[in-house]
Amino acid sequence: MRELQNVCVFLGSSTGTNPDNAAATVELGRELVARDMGLVYGGGAVGLMGLLADTVLKAGGRAIGIIPRSLFAREVAHQGLTELVETENMHDRKAMMYERSDAFIALPGGIGTLDELAEITTWRQIGLHDKPIGVVDVNGYYRSLLAWLDRVTEDGLLNEQNRGLVNSAPTGAELLDILSADPTGAATKWDN
Ligand code: AMP
Hints:
This protein has eight helices and seven strands; from the N terminus they run E-H-E-H-E-H-E-H-E-H-E-H-H-E-H. It is an alpha/beta fold. It has a single domain, classed as Rossmann fold (3-Layer(aba) Sandwich), CATH 3.40.50.450. Strands 4-3-2-1-5-6-7 form a seven-stranded parallel beta sheet. Helix 2 links the parallel strand 2 (38-41) and strand 3 (63-68). Helix 1 runs parallel beside helix 2 (47-58). The longest helix is centred in the N-terminal third of the chain and has 16 residues, at 19-34. It is globular and about 45 Å long. The structure holds adenosine monophosphate. Adenosine monophosphate (AMP) binds next to helix 5.
């Protein structure tokens, strides 16, 4: 077992149109608090991001937002967080989100979410960290991405072990169980 004190969540800065995605966001937020795990996220007050932070705070949990100055200036930062860290730029922001977290989860989101998921998985693949990663596959939201990863593996452009770095489960609770059990998949450095 691995103790996850803080879990970083990547998710949409919009709410979108599918209520299942909002429901899954609330479910994960409550689960984090029930397990006494702090939330680390992008610090926004908008969209699914804002919903997640509000859920955690309302349930009495800890929410740490890490936001670059440029977004802060546009007043999208959540003002009621346990801790709000302002960074110089997007790169510093990502590095700090990654440093302060013990595991990484992607909920439904768009390109920003995909970017963060891809980057944190790349970092693990090349051995920059050994923290577990997974997606909440809300009603198959990530099915096509997972199928693509299988195809990449089949074609030999990603090895089996690294394919195993992207865990998935239909709910936040199930995914937290998997990540807490410390899925191995110790990344093979430089050998994709
Ligand atoms: P997207 O999935 O394209 O909506 O982007 C969401 C992800 O990118 C989040 O996990 C954030 O870390 C980051 N992000 C994008 N837009 C914002 C915003 N307005 N405020 C804070 N973070 C954002």
